[in-house]
Amino acid sequence: MDREFLVDLFAGFGPVTIRRMFSGFGISADGINFALALRSGLYLRADETSFDKFEAAGSKPFSYETRARSMTVRSYWQVPAHLFDDTDEFALWAKEAFAAAQRAALAKQTRKKRAVPRSAQAVKEAGLQSSKAESSKAKSSGIKKAVSKAKAAKTRKVAKSPTKTSATGRKAASGRTTRSASSRTR
Prior knowledge:
By secondary structure, the protein is α+β, with helices and mostly antiparallel strands. Helices cover 44% and strands 22% of the residues. The protein is built from 6 helices and 8 strands. The chain has a 6-stranded antiparallel beta sheet. Strands 7-8 form a two-stranded antiparallel sheet. Helix 4 packs across helix 5. The radius of gyration is 31 Å and the shape is elongated.
């Protein structure tokens, strides 16, 4: 598939951006990829709402071979052959693929927002957070507390470990004795 063919095919959908990608092209709209044109065919983005539609049309998900096994990517499905002849119906499928890509992008953003550090999340749940400045103070104080606890635990371990005095009168930490220079050479 060449670029001109893809531009004509997606004309009913609306303006798209076509960029070189892998062994073909990535097709996007509004900065969201929703189709792939590769050597093996044209693939549209799909999700749980559209899997059945692709299966009913006899389409298969994108797959490729690695040295070890065959990989299947269920988020992109091959465009059924009859859609290449009917550009109006293709435009409907492309719009559904774009909607699936938008839902996936939204879900990805939501997952990123949930990845808030626990100390900041605890402050937020307690209702103590009123500004970004307070949030950063809470994060840094939480980190400082964790560091000071770790240092205190380490200090306790060192204090509990026995120390011995060597023949030269020097103390050795963690139970090891040091030898004087004269006892090392024989």
